[in-house]
Amino acid sequence: MRKRVLVICCTPYQLLVAVQVLATYYPDAQADLLISDQMNGARSLWESARKAWPYGDVLFVEEKKLNRLARGKTVGNICQGLLAPEKLLQRFVPVQGSYDVFLFSNISLLNQYLILGLRRRNPQLVWQLFEDGAETYSPLVGNLVQSSSWKVKLQLYQVQKVQALYLFHPETLDWTPACPVYKLSPTYAPETLELLNAIFSYDRLPDRYDQPFLFFEESYPCDQVDIGDVALVDQIAGLVGKENIFVKTHPRNPENRFQLAGYATNASTAVPWELIVLNHSFSHTLFITVGSSAATNPYWVFGKPVRALFLCDLVEHPERLRHQVLVQTRKLCAARPDLFFFPQTWEECAALLAQQRKELSA
Question: What is the C-alpha R_g of the chain?
Answer without folding.
Answer: 21
